[in-house]
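User: Sequence recovery, please. Input:
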């Protein structure tokens, strides 16, 4: 995942939260939560991958 894609996710999240504030529709809030969950998974997978590389490099 590239930083540009993360920025797009954040923009989309902000858009949904703004729509939720403006109209009070729970659907917008649900969409924003889904984006956050996707970002959490992305961050966790990236951290896991980097930690694995650090661990392997320190013992090689």
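Assistant: Recovered sequence (60 residues):
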């Amino acid at each position: 995942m590239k930083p540009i894609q993360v920025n797009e996710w954040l923009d989309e999240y902000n858009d949904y939260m703004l729509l939720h504030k403006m109209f009070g529709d729970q659907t917008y809030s649900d969409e924003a939560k889904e984006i956050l969950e996707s970002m959490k998974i992305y961050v966790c997978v990236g951290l896991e991958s980097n930690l694995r590389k650090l661990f392997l490099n320190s013992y090689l």
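Helices lie at 3-23, 26-59.
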